[in-house]
Each structure stands twice: as structure tokens, then as C-alpha cells.
Write a structure and sequence with these properties.
The structure is a homodimer of 466-residue chains. Chain A contains 15 helices and 18 strands. The first copy, chain A, is α+β, with helices and mostly antiparallel strands and 466 residues long. In chain A, α1 packs antiparallel against α3 (51-64) and α8 packs antiparallel against α10. Chain A is globular and about 75 Å long. At the A-B interface, β9, α7, α8 and α15 of A face β9, α7, α8 and α15 of B. Chains A, B: This is D-2-hydroxyglutarate dehydrogenase.
């Protein structure tokens, strides 16, 4: 779908000729995220360099009648940043500056295109810490993190991206600039629109600037990996450690993932014993007593039969390698064309939920290999079904989609979420009502109407227009 | 304003005859909160005992055309729960049960009428901690805390009420029941309406049930009070301690408040020296090294001239008495008919902001005594102007209101908030645009329209209808 020549010219007038791209290569690059199920087909990519330019583009979209897809680091896994229908992609690649550091508030003002790792490094250089971290931190942009309320591997202690946003500057779908919350910790002056834009996947407007809070740097982090004889034991281990230590992470993964990761990366197994499941936990050892406490809990878990074997990282390198057992899973299984689900339930419901899902997948497709891993301390599970070598991709995806309905019925049965931290985008849109009631979705639509009455902002993401 | 007899009968049919009150005493009691500037004039008080009854009352309000004022512990300070115009007050006094405890999630399901202290005690009985705490915790109800996003004295570590709400069951102004977020830590399925209801002061609907997250119990809390020679020194003290310890509180108050509190309560001064300002700080001493660290920072602050004298609570009793220097201020100054403002700015802006406000009040009313105190670690300041004995109440309030405009112009100049943690209600309504832009307020109005198209939910609070 091509833009009218006059519209294209107007875009160039706003952002400058060199900041509008319509070549095939650019359209293919900026028209997709990490989901590869859709064919990118944007009509243009624009690269604004100020909030005024963003506002002008949004106003033009309303006047000229084109749709906008916001584009950050394009690392999304739900097609929230895919432009498959002639949309204009607004990229934040040139709005990538850290503009101000306010030491007293431990706050940093950034443009939406700042990369997560760039913010993490900036924090570190200033003796502080930006705690939201995940595998794609090297490419994902803060605007996208905010739009999806990104989570990751430290949520058990630090919470989601939402917790670290002090203020936002947004351009609404109507083209208004709003300064949301003005960077204060306490501000009880009516509805907090900041929290409405966080997680809205660009459907209400565009996040252009943000003020992020930083934390003190963690001290003396210790990493343990423990092997458990079954899944319920993982839960016991979580409860024992959490009762007595402040965990900064609690992840789990299965033996199959250890086999795949160690074969792929060449790193060593954590210990000789192979066990069905593994828990990786991390904590700050603020005193020797805390390290001793961790060892005591470990021994107690062994006595109870919840832990078969375990290891405490003895050096920074060893700790890093233990983390890689968890962090390299996604990359390792990528060649197996995994069918991914990112689901969550309350922690108490995890064991029964996993057992149900395993039974469903096992009954339907006994030849499929399933890799479970996830942020068990938050009730967030990544279910990855690996494609058998001999099976055609299309056939495999069709089979997975068929089982998906049963998976999401199980999510609904356990009052869970069809998307824990990846957003809805297009891939989860059909399943939204498994988590949100139909009545609730009508309220979502009405809110969209308030901020974006002409439907120019990322249409067809989260839900379809009424 | 009286309700039609048929409407009153309908209310009784919904909640039961004994759960509708129209006697003068009840109307006067349930028709106000702690603000005493308005004359209560509700037409009836109803006490539902189930979410279905709440829904039926809201639907009746839409059909019969009466307005609803939600009523919790009535400890609000902005007249958010005042019924001055013939509204029907919906009291949550009989929806006061803790219904479920989910240990694995450290989560507790409550009805909206549960009192803050009741939840705190329940948490303690289960070896856990509900960290939102403030002077009115003995009467305030969770529904009200959620409606105003209550803050208090532990925000520096634990954040506002918002951080502890895993899920909400609400009845919208249209009469729909919504289950918001379903109690999960991670749930990226579209706009998070939970955060819209938190802080909405009952203008979008009624919070009927909530699932609150609990934290581990704090360990070995240590309290220090330090005397500083001037206000900027308070900021230095904050920065030094915060850089090296995880503070659970950082409060400040002035010498005048120490004089008033010690005279009123008979507790001892913290130490002999009188200094213009005092900082109260609290931290968990998780090891002896941390206590030593605190002493080292204290000594360093003395060397730098930021601290003149100080004391570390040596027993639980002494710690409690140190806390009373801060916590008894409100009660102590109540007889002086204080004119209260609850304002906030970013922490970095606090010193200049305080100096500006002091200059304004000093220039306009040199005979007024000003008591400053507040949660300086969050940029939240309570400005209390005491009525001179000889002055008439009406005259005093008129003078304060006149100076208010200058105070709020200063808030605006520093990009601050006219209500940090008390909400807008009616008392701050006229000043809302000093913090929220006129354009933003139009979005707030439009959101209200989505949830409450007939304007039955707490009308005239936060903003007036368009």
C-alpha cells in the first residue's frame, strides 16, 4: 500500500528528507519485530528527532488518514511492532539520548529510543543500577519496554518496568502532548494516565520521553543452581529461600534445556547429577551470615529431599556461567523453531497448572519435545514446544495452534494470563478474552477511543476495532 | 434533599431494611470525612454486604438518578468522601472480611472495608508485613487507601498503596463487575485498569474487593534522629545515608514541631541541643556491620557540619518514642486549627521550594507559625499553618486561602503536585490545573465518561463535570 505523494512529502517536510525511507530493505527491516509470522508491508519508515516532530507526524496521520506503528528495538515477541498493512512506521532510533541525570532523585531522563543496556550502563557509571533486565537488553529500547511493561529476570525483587517509570511525555493518538506524573514519587491528583500508557503497546499514543528511577547497585550477588527431583520440589525450594533471604532472582528450567544449552554453548553442566528440574536463585550476601544462611537452607532442602544436588558460584565467572544455563535457552532453542507461549498464573497454582499443560501436550503430541523455563518466583512460565526435525514448519505451527486453545482454556481455568510479559500485539489478540472478560475488553476499546478516536495508533494490536 | 420513597424502598430491598439509615445522627456521621469544611447532607446511608448488593445499588443509582459517595474509614483530608449534596453514601463497614490468604504468593484477599491495621495485624500473625502505614491506620479502610493511593511513612522503601495491589474487584459507574488483573505479578494483556481505579477517589466506580501483596517482616529496625543546622543539611544527610544503607523511612520535622509535641505528649526531646530541623531515619540492621556503617555515616555528617547532634534508639521503647516525635505532630497541632497543605516536588527541588514557600508565608503573614514536616525521602512536604489564638477561624482560613494561590503557583513553578498523598476530593479541585494541564484534565473527564456515563459516582470530586 503506497502513501499519496503529498503525504510522503509532508512527512519529509516534518522530519527531513533523509529521515523518511521507502526502500525495500528499510521497509523489510523496520516493518517487523522478532516474530517472523507476518510479512512486513509498511508504506514508509520515518525517524523523528524531537517530540514536536512526533506530534506533527501523529497530527498528519489524523489528517491524511494513515496508520502509525511505533518501532523501538523490534525485539518484541507478539508482533506488537509489526507493520503488515501499509502503516507508517515511526522509529525512535534517533531519539536515543539520555538527557538528564538527577542524582538526588536517582532519576534519569531519557528519550524513548534509548537502548536498555545503554541505560543499564549509564546507571552503573553513576554508581547506580537499572534493574529491569532480559535477554534482549542489548537491542530493546525503553519506549518499547514501557509500551509492553517489560519484565525479565529480576522481577521477583524489582518488579516490572512499570515500577521504574517516574514520568512520561507522550503524544496521544489525537496529537496532544501530555506530561504524565512529572517525575514525582507521590502525586495524588486524579487518574494516573502514566500507568495507562505503560503496557498499552502504542495503541493510545507514543511514548517519546521518560524519566526512569534507578536503584542502588546490588552488592555481592551470589548465584546457586539446585537440582530437584520433581516440579513441586522447586516450589518448596522457592518458599524456603524466600522466607529467609531477599531473592533477586528465582528461575527454573528443565533437564532438556540443560542438555541443549550445554551442548550448544559448551559450558559445563552445573553438577554431575542430572535432575528433572533446576532452580537458579540469586541473592545479595550483605553479610557472611547471609551466605551461611543460604547454605543452611540448601542443606535443609537436601534433607527434605527437595534438592538432589547443587552448586554455589565461587567466582564471578562461575556465577555468569550458571546464569547462562538459564539465559542462553532462547538462543539455543531458536534453531528448533520453538512454538512459544509466555503464560502466568498465581504462584500457588503453578504446580497443578504445569501438570495440566504437560498432560495436554503429552496426550496430543507425544512426539513433541517441550522445554519449560521461566520466572517461577513471579508465576511466569515460558512453554516452548520444539519442532520435530522431520515435520514441516507449517504443519508444526498448525498442530501447535490446535493445542493452543486447550492451553489457553487451561490458563483460563487457573485464572491466569495468556501473555505474562510479551504483550498481546497480534499473536495473542485472538486469545485476549481468555484473560480479560468481554465486558472488560469493551472498556479497553472505549479508552482507546478517548485517546485515539480516529484509530491511527497501532491499529489491530491488542484488539480489533469494534 | 430527600430520596423518593420508592427509591428508598428499593435500597432497602437490596441491602435489607436495617442496612439503610436516614436518621440525622447517621447522616451526620457517615456524610463526612476528617475535613470539617463542609456540612454533611446525604439523603441516606446504605451498608451493602456483598458485591452483588453494591452492583444493585449502582444500577439503581443509574436508573433512579441519584449520586453515590463511597465511604470507608472517613479519614480523608480532601473531602473525597463528603456527601454534601443529597448523595447516597455507600459504606463498606460491613464488607470488612479478610477472605483468603495465599501463602505461596504472600497474597491476601480482602473486602474493601477491611481496616488498614486489621490487615497489618493479619500480616504479622502470618509472619509477614503490610508496609503501607500512616497515622490513621487504625480507622482507614483499604478501599479508601486504594481510592486515594495512600502513601505514608514507609514509601521510601515500599512505595505507595499502588505497589501492593495485585488485583481488584470493582463495580463500575455503569454497574459492571470487573475483575482487574486477577492477582498476577505479570500480566501483559492490554491496559491495566487496576491502576486507573487506584487513586480515582471513587469517581469511576467502587472498589469492592482487593488482593493485597504482603512482604517479609522487617528485621531489627533501627531508628535515628539527627539535628541539623539548616534545611539543606537534611538533604545531605539523606543522600549520605541513602547511598550506603537501604532506608525504610526518612522523615523530617522542624524545631517548632518538637517543642509542640514534647509539650503535648510529655515525651523527652531527642537530645539536649535544639536545632532548626530534624531528620528521622530508619533502616534494617541486617548485620552488625550495617549498624557500624550507620554510626560511621553519622560521624561523617557531624564532621561535615550537617549534623549537630543525634541519637540512635537503644531499645524498642526509645525507638517508639523517637517515632512519636514525628507521628504525633498531626494530633498535637490539631487544636491550633492548622491549615494543611500536602505538596510534593522532585527531591532535588525540595530545598529551593521550601525556601520560596517560607518567604511567601513569612512576607504575607509574619505572625503565622508554620510547622513543616514530611516524607522528605519522597519529596513530600506537609505545610501546616497554625491559627494565631486571637484570630477568628473564618478570618484565618480566608487569609490562608489567599496565600494558597501563591503556594500553588510555586508548586507549579517547581513542576510539583498540589496533592502528594491526600487526593483531590473537593478541597484541591480548584487547584488541579496547577499540576495537571487543562488538556490532560479533558482526558480525565473523557475517561470518567467511559466508566460512569451518567455521572453517578462521587460527582464533583477531583473535577466538576464538563
Amino acid at each position: 500500500m503506497a502513501l499519496a505523494a503529498a503525504t510522503l512529502q509532508s512527512l519529509m517536510d516534518i522530519v527531513g528528507d533523509s529521515r523518511v525511507r521507502v526502500d525495500e530493505q528499510s521497509l523489510a527491516t523496520w516493518g517487523v519485530d522478532w516474530t517472523k509470522m507476518y510479512t512486513p508491508a509498511p508504506s514508509a519508515i520515518v525517524f523523528p528527532s524531537s517530540i514536536e516532530q512526533v506530534q506533527a507526524v501523529v497530527r498528519l496521520a489524523n489528517d491524511a488518514g494513515f496508520a502509525i506503528v511505533p518501532s523501538g528495538g523490534r525485539t518484541g515477541l507478539s508482533a506488537g511492532a509489526v507493520a503488515a498493512n501499509g502503516e507508517v512506521v515511526v522509529s525512535f532510533d534517533y531519539l536515543n539520548k539520555i538527557t538528564e541525570f538527577i542524582a538526588e532523585d536517582r532519576a534519569v531522563r531519557i528519550q524513548a529510543g534509548v537502548v536498555t543496556e545503554q541505560l543499564q550502563n549509564f546507571a552503573e557509571e553513576n554508581g547506580l543500577y537499572y534493574p529491569v533486565d532480559f535477554a534482549s537488553a542489548g537491542s530493546s529500547q525503553l519506549g518499547g519496554n514501557i509500551g509492553t511493561n517489560a519484565g525479565g529476570i529480576k522481577v521477583i525483587k524489582y518488579g516490572m518496568t512499570r515500577n521504574w517509570v517516574l514520568g512520561l511525555k507522550v503524544v496521544t493518538g489525537k496529537g496532544d502532548i501530555l506530561e504524565l506524573n512529572k517525575d514525582m514519587i507521590k502525586n495524588a491528583t486524579g487518574y494516573d494516565l502514566r500507568h495507562l500508557f505503560i503496557g498499552a503497546e502504542g495503541t493510545l499514543g507514543l511514548v517519546v520521553e521518560a524519566t526512569m528511577k534507578l536503584d542502588r547497585a546490588p552488592r555481592n550477588l551470589q548465584v546457586m543452581v539446585l537440582g530437584t527431583p520433581d516440579f513441586p520440589s522447586v516450589m518448596h525450594v522457592l518458599r524456603e529461600f524466600q522466607a529467609r533471604l531477599d531473592l533477586t532472582a528465582f528461575e527454573f528450567f528443565s533437564e532438556l534445556s540443560v542438555q541443549l544449552v550445554t551442548a550448544h554453548s559448551g559450558i559445563a553442566r552445573p553438577f554431575e547429577s542430572a535432575t528433572p528440574f533446576y532452580a537458579l536463585l540469586e541473592f545479595e550476601a550483605l553479610s557472611d551470615a547471609m551466605s551461611d544462611e543460604a547454605m543452611a537452607i540448601f542443606e535443609q532442602c537436601v534433607e527434605q529431599g527437595w534438592v538432589v544436588d547443587g552448586v554455589l558460584g565461587q567466582s564471578e565467572t562461575q556465577a555468569k556461567n550458571l546464569w547462562r544455563l538459564r539465559e542462553d535457552i532462547s538462543e539455543t532453542i531458536a534453531p528448533y523453531t520453538p512454538y512459544k507461549n509466555d503464560i502466568s498464573v498465581m504462584i500457588a497454582r503453578v504446580p497443578a497448572f504445569i501438570a495440566d499443560i504437560d498432560a495436554i501436550v503429552g496426550a496430543q503430541y507425544p512426539d513433541f519435545r517441550v522445554v519449560w523455563f521461566g520466572h517461577i518466583g513471579d508465576g511466569n512460565l515460558h512453554l516452548n514446544i520444539l519442532k520435530p526435525d522431520a515435520m514441516e514448519k507449517a504443519d508444526f505451527f498448525a498442530k501447535c495452534k490446535a493445542v493452543n486453545v486447550q492451553v489457553f482454556e487451561t490458563v483460563q481455568k487457573y485464572n491466569g494470563s495468556v501473555s505474562a510479559e510479551h504483550g498481546v500485539g497480534m499473536t495473542k489478540k485472538a486469545y485476549l478474552t481468555y484473560t480479560r472478560s468481554a465486558v472488560e475488553v469493551e472498556y479497553l476499546r472505549a479508552i482507546k477511543q478517548v485517546f485515539d478516536p480516529n484509530g491511527v495508533m497501532n491499529p489491530g494490536k491488542i484488539f480489533d476495532p469494534a
